[in-house]
Amino acid sequence: QSALTQPPSASGSPGQSVTISCTGTSSDVGHYNFVSWYQQHPGNAPKVMIYEVNKRPSGVPDRFSGSKSGNTASLTVSGLQADDEADYYCISYAGNHDVVFGGGTKLTVL
Amino acid sequence: QLQLQESGPGLVRPSETLSLTCAVSGGSIGDDIYFWGLFRLPPGKGLEWIGHIHYSGDTYYNPSLKSRVAMSVDTSENHFSLKLRSVTASDTAVYYCVRYRRFADYFDSWGQGTLVTVSS
Fold first, then answer.
1. In degrees rounded to 5, what are phi and psi of residue A84?
2. Could you report the per-residue pLDDT of B91-115, keeping only the tens digit for each?
């Protein structure tokens, strides 16, 4: 059982926006601004999309954005495209060099 | 451009030790701002963090695997390694080598992954 809770699935039509939640506790998500999000297409390695709650690495489209409120972090994908269909995972720093992670959300573009 | 390459046996017998090596190229394993680690993806399940190691040898493991995991680093060869003892079928997974950026606390580079199957 993963320490962070994500919905198993999410979906949206092309052009729409979808938000994926990631709920932790006051010891991880709620305490540190070190939440990151990863996209994984089947058969490929995960790729970081967001780090430090809302920062995008170079090359990641600004359609991807992150936020946090209390113990819940969120990833929003705007202007959905077919290639956004993938699994998404959240990870949070939890202190003492510990890392906690979510169970993943399968995003379907309808 | 950093590259991480996993190598190891594709098949391990139950109760034996799984050994994997992650070769680092395009960067130095001795760079202080990084940890080096592994994740795994069991079939039909989600990602699981295994642990990571600093070039100094300091290690940090997932508590659920800590009793069976050992990681080591070889700065002269620019690689790090995993040993997972007493494996069972539930250890069957794609194993990924990763680089962890300290102070920003995220995994910025991933290897392509290698499938390890535990079966007799």
1. -80, -10
2. 999 999 999 999 989 999 999 999 9
